[in-house]
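Thread title: Can someone regenerate the structure for this chain?

I was given the following input by a collaborator and told the matching structure tokens would be attached. They weren't. Posting the sequence so someone can regenerate them.
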Amino acid sequence: MNFTERYKLLTIYAMSFMYVFIGIRHFTNPQYFLDIVPPQLPFKLFLVYLTGLIEIVGGVAILLPKTRRSGAYLLIFLLVSVFPANIYLYVSETPQGLLGISKMDALIRMPFQTPLILLAYWHSKENHPNWVAFVSSLVFIPTIIYFLSI
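Best answer:
Regenerated them for you:
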């Protein structure tokens, strides 16, 4: 296994841990996630638990080569699905106040969905164009640092 393959495997393990950890938090601290569910959506607690379950399943699935592709696409679906919560967090002072973040913090948070989607796509299969591997490798460390800081 060369350096690039080992690095990619490291990113898979790290992202898996992150998704499983955050997924578990949906169950242990649902209020945090309820605070950023847009008010127009019904069944908020169900949605928090569902997205937590999807994070856990996707995080575990990317660990295993046989389920990695399905897990990665499940995570991409999740990241796109929860983006309205990031928009709501940015446009509404209510969740900003509940989470203790500023409007600027919410704005900075929004673009991180893109590298998360890119990383999940990179993890979805063994071979991608070189640019996908290169950009994914570059965005991994700042993305992890950012999410560890929030």
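The chain is about 80% helix and 0% strand.
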